[in-house]
Structure formats: C-alpha cells, structure tokens
Amino acid sequence: MSDPEWDLDPKFDFIEAHRIATGSRVSLDDIDTQMEGPFRGKDHGRAFTHQAVEDIRNLQYRMFTEAKQSLLIVLQAPDAAGKDGLIRKVLGQMNPQGCRTYPFKVPNSEELAHDFLWRIHACTPAAGKVSIFNRSHYEDVLVVRVENIVPKSVWKERFELINDFEKLLVHRGTRILKFYLHISHEEQLERFKKRLDDPTKHWKLNAGDYDARDKAAAYREAYEDVFEKCHSKDSPWHIIPADKKWYRDASVAAIVRQTLQEMDPQLPSIDADLDEIRRLYERESAELQANKK
Ligand code: ATP
Ligand code: MG
C-alpha cells in the first residue's frame, strides 16, 4: 500500500516507539518532544504523511462499507500542542460521511446533571464509523483534578469507571487509540507568541492558558496517573513528540494507518446478481446507441 519512494527504515515501528509500556510509570520529563523518527527532515515527513492519509482514507472507506467495526481516537494535550492542526491535516481528511470530530468543552448544566460519561457515550462511533475526541472523558480526571472541581474521593474512582466504559466499547467492536501530544514548555510559549502576533489566531487567546502553564507540574502528575491507570492492550495510550508539527502528523498518521490495516476491514459481500445487472446495462446502452442513430 505504501509508495516505495517514501519507504522508511523497515525496522522503525511507530507503535512500538510511542505506545507506552503496560505496568510501568511514564515520566513525561524523560520523553523527547523533538523527535524526528526515521525521517530525513520535514519534507520527507510531510510526503510520508500525505501517502499515509491516502491509505487511511481507503481503509476507512472499507470500514464504512463493512459497517461492523468502529474506531475511536482520543486526543489529549496541553494548550497549543496541536490537536486542531492534527485534525485539520490528518484525521479530518477521512470521509465525513463516516467520521466526526467531537470537541469536549466545559460541561453545560444539562451535562453536569448527568454522570460524567453521559455526554461522552453519546459521541462514541457506531459500526463502520470513526469518532475523534478533541479532549475527552479524561478531562474529568485532569482539569477537574488540578482545578479541584470535584473532591479527590470522586475523581479517584473515575479511573476504574473509565476502564470499564472503554471495555464496553471494545466489547462492541470499537478499536480505541489514545494520543497525548507532548510539547515542551518552551515550544508552548513560542506558540502562544505566534497566536499573539497573528490577528486571525486572537480568538484562541485565553488568560487561563497561562494559569495552566503555572500548574504544569500538577498536570504532568495527573497525566502520568492516567497513563498508569488507564492504559491497556485494548485501549492504549501513545505519547507523540509534538514540538515538530510534521512529526506529530506523520507519527499519528502511521499509527492510525497501521491500526486500520490490522482491523482489515472488508468490502461487503455482494447479494446482487452481477450477470443480471450486466445484462441490464448492456440492454440500456444498446438502446441508447440505437436512439442516437
Ligand atoms: P486550544 O488548544 O486551541 O486552546 P482547547 O481544546 O483548549 O483548544 P478551549 O475551548 O480553549 O479548547 O478549551 C476547552 C476547555 O474545556 C479546556 O480548558 C478544558 O480543560 C475544558 N474542559 C473540557 N472538559 C471538561 C470537563 N469535563 N470539566 C471541566 N472542564 C473541561
Ligand atoms: Mg484552550
């Protein structure tokens, strides 16, 4: 499926490089944010992504027609780490008939009147579909914890509730891929500056983003707990080095493509009588030709 021109070191496995190991605690500070993987620079990475996106589209088409399996992609990240760019350039390139993005913001009063998974469950993918979560139920053990929105006795029970919820989705035939976009403190500030310098990005500016920067250590600890408690073979986390936007896009595209290849969606079997349909076509086209004369 891949174009040989962009073939990479065949030993480089994006899933192995970025999927976290089960049962060990991740230390985000020890993970490189600037990695370039097997690529010979930005242009090589971008060309690879282009091909991977094409392959993802074809595989998603098969999954849509098969209408059995589904895929849930969860994106979590600090502000300005590039969730929007990744969706625009990679994930949002799938056919919108079978793929939808759901951004999760501060819950409204109706959502708050239900359990924390109520609004999430409603957005999970039906058979044949892909859901992309821009933020997710993990906010309920991240921002909610760091900002003390609910007491510890409440949020600490949620890790297990999340695991049970995700097991339910897997049981129904959903593959889950969870991505954390990992940027450095320095790169984040640089991106905040670019937003300040660009009037078309001013709508993204938010004083609260600086507050979250002050709480970076608390967020880091909260994320590390998530990676420890809510990672499994069937619902894995990947930590994506995201200082280089092109590497972020290429590595996520590679992991999504490999996962869809493993899912191996099949075009549906044909009930229609093809010989009969061919006969009908030939009759119509002969009639059309005859009328032209
Ligand atoms: P950007 O990276 O462009 O800033 P964003 O995902 O931060 O995008 P915003 O509209 O800035 O989008 O912020 C959404 C906010 O909603 C985030 O601060 C997030 O923490 C908050 N949020 C999401 N889910 C919850 C939740 N369950 N409880 C409280 N806050 C939440
Ligand atoms: Mg924000």
From TrEMBL:
It holds the Pfam family PPK2. It comes from the Bacteria. SUPFAM superfamilies: P-loop containing nucleoside triphosphate hydrolases. Residues 42-266 form the Polyphosphate kinase-2-related domain. GO terms for molecular function: polyphosphate kinase activity. The keyword Cell cycle does not apply. One of its GO terms (biological process) is polyphosphate metabolic process. NCBIfam families: PPK2_rel_1. Belongs to the polyphosphate kinase 2 (PPK2) family. Class I subfamily. This is Polyphosphate kinase 2 (PPK2). It comes from Neorhodopirellula pilleata.
